[in-house]
Amino acid sequence: MRHDQVRLAPSFLVRKRFQFAGALVISAGLPWFARGPLLPGTMIEAASLNTLIGNTIAVILAFWMRLSIETYPGIRRSSVILPAATTGHGVAVVWFVLTRFPYDRIGLAAGFLLHVAWLYLLYIRAERKVRRRIAVVPFGGTDRLAKIHDVDWHMMKRPQLRDARACNAIVADFSAELPDEWEAFLADAALAGRIVY
Question: Is 187 helix (H, G, I), strand (E, B) or coil?
């Protein structure tokens, strides 16, 4: 998260590293640690270790999918959580079924449920209160952007990267006739690693 986003919750809750680490601990670690004291079996048997690895890979896949999709403006972050988690954990289940490696069904199911609960809890507590700020190149059909709510649109006045410094991304209508200095600005922004839509 960048400093320009409106935060009404503790800032560490919206950090992707915290969300990822928490998902790993909760959805992969808790079902594994529950082996023995709460669930039958031991932590070092093959099924328990394979389930730990499967839940870890599922969290990594789901996190990658969320990062790939949530960057687009107008995407509701809450609508990405369940499909991403389902896909990640579904890939793990299919892997175990196809390879016939031993795994713990209760551990995989618990990992999925804890993963989804963690992500929705974070969304309810912090993510839905964050507003993105996106810079707009003032040429073409930019008037339709105002219909997308939950985004602060910053209309740029000059082609300077420092004017878009506090923004998460830059939007331009590439079908419009852009002056050369604005095209150079967009190229510089893309080369600098900025997100350009």
Answer: helix
Is the entire prediction scored with pTM above 0.90?
Answer: no
* Whether residue 110 is found in the same domain as residue 40: yes
Q: Which residues of 42-74 are buried (b: 16+ CB within 10 A; e: fewer)?
A: eeeeebbbbbbbbbbbbbebbbebbeeebeebe
Assigned domain for 169 exists: yes
Question: Is residue 4 domain-resident?
Answer: no
Most confident stretch, 33-47, 83-97, 150-164 = 83-97
Helix axes 78-99, 105-125, angle to 10 degrees: 170
Separation between Cα atoms, residue 114 and residue 109, nearest integer Å: 9
Minimal CA–CA distance to 6: which of 180, 172, 130?
130
Any domain includes 6: no
Q: If residue 163 lies in a helix (H) or strand (E), which one and from where to where? A: none
Domain that holds residue 161: 132-191
Asked whether residue 107 falls in the same domain as residue 19, the answer is yes
